[in-house]
Write a structure and sequence with these properties.
- The chain is of the alpha+beta class.
- It is about 30% helix and about 20% strand.
- It is built from two helices and six strands.
- Strands 1, 2, 3, 4, 5 and 6 form a six-stranded mixed β-sheet that branches.
């Protein structure tokens, strides 16, 4: 009788241990699923930010020379949807979603008309971009084959949001773009690789993305 009681107690202890291990394992699997879902949503947000950057570059490369005053250094007539130097607040990457919705351009929309017609963005994701001119250099057109008269530098901010509202990725790029010369602007929406716009320029003329980083 005593041995039966010991066996019963031992069995209960083993059963409790097994139950505890099962609960712990289930909790671990749940945590892993949440981590995997968060990681996947982070990837979605970063992909949306990449799409926003592509839309911003396509718009910048598509602007004709008439959108910017030749030889102008400051307070120039800037292309639509491009902010003037000093017009953005510090650290816009931490501004609210409402601020971005008011000041940024959706990647899948035309920057002026607001109609569909930008770059493709996955369903359920948000992709926004902001372009700001930060510096302009007038150059001698006789010193390059394309007779370019000016070189502008831009700050491109791209914000992507995943399926969860709090999953946000913001990137920043510094981009160079020549103005006023013998070259063809790109199409918007883009019809070929973005880099194709920069291919004709002399190697001495910076063009395209010069630097890139994740801000958030």
């Amino acid at each position: 009788m005593r041995s039966q009681g010991v066996a019963l107690v031992t069995g209960l202890v083993i059963l409790a241990a097994i139950s505890l291990l099962a609960i712990t394992a289930a909790g671990g699997l749940t945590l892993q699923r949440h981590q995997a879902a968060n990681f996947q949503d982070r990837i979605r947000a970063e992909s949306a930010a990449d799409a926003a950057q592509s839309a911003a570059l396509a718009w910048l490369y598509s602007r004709p020379d008439s959108d910017r005053q030749a030889g102008c250094i400051a307070a120039c007539f800037l292309p639509d949807a491009i902010h003037a130097p000093g017009s953005l607040p510090l650290q816009p990457e931490f501004r609210s979603a409402e601020w971005w919705a008011e000041h940024a351009i959706p990647a899948d929309r035309h920057p002026v008309s607001g109609e569909p017609g930008g770059v493709d963005v996955a369903t359920g994701l948000e992709a926004l971009w902001i372009v700001q001119e930060i510096h302009f250099d007038a150059i001698d057109p006789a010193g390059n084959e394309q007779q370019v008269e000016g070189l502008a530098y831009y700050r491109v901010l791209a914000r992507g949001r995943g399926r969860q509202a709090n999953t946000v990725a913001v990137s920043e790029s510094i981009v160079a773009r020549p103005w006023h010369g013998r070259y063809e602007t790109a199409a918007y929406p883009p019809e070929r690789a973005l880099r194709a716009f920069c291919d004709p320029f002399d190697t001495e003329l910076p063009c395209g993305v010069l630097a890139w980083r994740i801000l958030r």
